[in-house]
Amino acid sequence: MKIALAALTALVIANTAMPAAMAADINTDPPRNGNVTLKSVGAGALSLIVWPGIGQAVNEQKGEKVLTHALVGLFPPFRFWSGYDALMDRNGGYWDGKI
Predict the structure, then answer these.
(1) How far apart are CA 45 and CA 1, in angstroms?
(2) CA separation, residue 70 to residues 54, 73, 99 (Å)
(3) Sign of dihedral through CA atoms 94, 29, 41, 35?
(4) Residue among 65, 54, 53, 58 nearest 91 (CA)
(5) pLDDT (tens digit, 9 = 90+) per residue, 42-96?
(6) Strand pairing partners for 32?
(7) Using CA atoms, how far apart are residues 14 and 16, in angstroms rounded to an integer?
(8) Residue 44, exposed/middle/buried by CB under 10 A (0-12, 13-18, 19+)?
């Protein structure tokens, strides 16, 4: 029984791994940093302190990105990522340019 469970666990782990060649095709819009300005510092602070997504709206990002940041901001650790994203005034990004 223990051997079967160990084999099943190894099989599941092996199937969840993604080859690097496949991972390269996922991100078609790599993030590009803008300039850190007074506006982006304020946007980062708003996104960190008030609510994720506000900073992206201040930085005039696409509506999809603002909405995604606002919804995923329900998870507290995402505030730090969103604040950094607004501070660096990043364009594009992962998950079709939304994060």
Answers:
(1) 54
(2) 8, 5, 11
(3) positive
(4) 65
(5) 999 999 999 999 999 999 988 888 999 999 988 888 889 899 989 998 887 777 7
(6) 91
(7) 6
(8) buried
Chain centroid to CA 84: 10
Q: Work out the burial of residue 96: count CB atoms within 10 Å of its CB; fewer than 13 is exposed, 13-18 middle, 19 or more buried.
A: middle
- Its pTM stands at 0.66
Query: What are the residues facing 91 on neighbouring strands?
Result: 32
CA angle 59, 64, 69 (to 5 degrees): 70
Long-range (24+ apart) CB contacts under 8 A made by 60-64 are 61/91, 62/97, 64/96, 64/97, 64/98
